[in-house]
Design a protein that fits this description.
Layout (H helix, E strand, L loop, with lengths): L5 H22 L6 H8 L3 H5 L4 H25 L4 H12 L7 H9 L7 H27 L9 H20 L5 H16 L8
């Protein structure tokens, strides 16, 4: 992978980002080596270094995963005008498909680094806040439309949704719960938090 600028360089950087993702999902963050990324990309370790060191490449990959995850969820909710449909779409889009859900696994592979790396922690906080904002906006809209009855502040309820999702995601990725079970559990919380049952609109 020769060093190039312009469009060719951007394409090569994108290919390298995909190689980083594959290597992360195969080896895990703690066991990841520059050599693993090079092998996935089909280049030498020296060629990989042209685009950054191991920490920098992993950080950039995590940033991209956050953006993709957030955009997909926001787009899913934005398809609807009715807050009830938005809530159902938000819940549905936020739950991993199973243990092999690559995007969700990628986000959770990186999470332990947040405990001792301020830059990683800042990214994780940004992801959490972005998900809370989606839920909070839906809850406020649902209240204004007369569909939801909120007994607690919207942001608190939104933060609870995200915290539940995070906990359940680990169960799905570990194969201990199914996606259907988690969506049902989040629906039960939605019913308690808003007075509206997402399942009633299926």
């Amino acid at each position: 992978m020769a060093a190039k600028k312009g469009k060719g360089g951007e394409a090569r950087r994108a290919e390298l980002g995909e190689a980083v993702q594959r290597a992360l999902l195969t080896r895990g963050l703690e066991g990841l080596r520059l050599r693993d990324i090079a092998e996935e990309a089909g280049v030498t370790p020296a060629a990989v270094l042209y685009y950054g060191d191991l920490d920098g490449l992993v950080h950039a990959t995590y940033q991209q995963a956050i953006e993709r995850y957030s955009q997909e969820r926001e787009a899913a909710a934005d398809r609807f005008a009715d807050a009830r449909d938005k809530l159902a779409a938000c819940i549905d889009n936020g739950v991993a498909g199973g243990p092999e859900d690559a995007l969700t696994r990628l986000l959770f592979e990186y999470w332990p680094r947040c405990l001792r790396d301020a830059r990683a922690a800042a990214l994780d906080s940004a992801l959490t806040e972005r998900q809370i904002a989606v839920y909070a906006g839906i809850l406020v809209l649902g209240q204004a439309q007369g569909h939801f009855t909120l007994n607690d502040p919207p942001r608190l309820l939104a933060a609870n949704f995200v915290a539940m999702e995070d906990g359940y995601q680990m169960e799905v990725l570990a194969g201990r719960r199914t996606r259907v079970e988690v969506i049902s559990a989040l629906g039960a919380y939605a019913r308690a938090a808003t007075g509206y049952d997402p399942a009633s609109r299926s």
